[in-house]
Please model this.
Amino acid sequence: MSKIYGYARVSTLHQDLAIQVNAIEMAGVEPENIYKDKKSGKNMEREALTELLNVIETGDTLIVHKLDRLGRSVSQVMTLVDDLKNRGIFLVVINANIDTRRDEGMAGIMTKALMTLLSLMAEMEREFILERVHAGMETAKQNGVQFGRPEVNKDLYELAIQDYLEGGLTSTQIIKKYGKGSNGKDNITEATLFRRVREHQAYQKAIESYIASGKVKSVEELIAEGEHKTIKGELKPVLKAKKLTKLIKDLGWSIRDRLFLYLKLILTLMLTLTLTFSIIYKCKAKLNKVRFFKWKKFVQC
Model:
């Protein structure tokens, strides 16, 4: 009898697996069948993953929360995906709604193309952030910064916010993770981290409200209905018009977003056409079979 397994991974010992594990359990995996790693995805030498690949058999199903939990690079992920397919093991990716148990013919090709695209996007996003961080750190060192925080902090806080909201790290763990700057001070401070997390969530809510309105709400309306804070006894909005306008503009005009959207639409269209032709072919085959038996019966008479 086929079994269903789950796999969850975070990069460090301090990060929390709870979000991934909960999602996998809700997908129907028993807790004892969920394998967990707390190790970087830059290589495939992970104890729990190795054990899982030794246990899982043909006809079984592997469920993960996100595709990048299997590996950090496109080559790693797709090599593992191909290996699972060759062994007759099905793969389900919860957040991308991918389920290879439903794949037949061209549908399987479309699913593989989508997984390749998702892996590429995840790898590119990570590389973009790390590139900005390293460039900022190098610039700060060359300029001999002694006072104030280096420019790299803006990008460090982007990573820190992700760690706090998605990775499950505490503020203390995040401060320790990103260390100290060239001035001897912490690159991440607790007060600033919490402030930026609140701001990040406020802008997210504003964008969601803008999309829900059919993209008709003005920046002024979004700021008015958004979160406010008290500064020196005066109530002021958290949202800034300039930044919110830029986010809305990026939402509508980002070349990369448009490219990904077009690719997704093309893949969806191809998948729909494939399924449609598959259904038509099966119906036609059944009809021809019925006609054949009727003709055979007629000839026998």
User: Anything to note?
Assistant: The radius of gyration is 25 Å. The beta strands are 4-10, 34-38, 61-64, 90-93, 98-99, 228-231, 234-237. The domain at 4-118 is CATH 3.40.50.1390 (Rossmann fold). The CA atoms of residues 134 and 152 lie 8 Å apart.
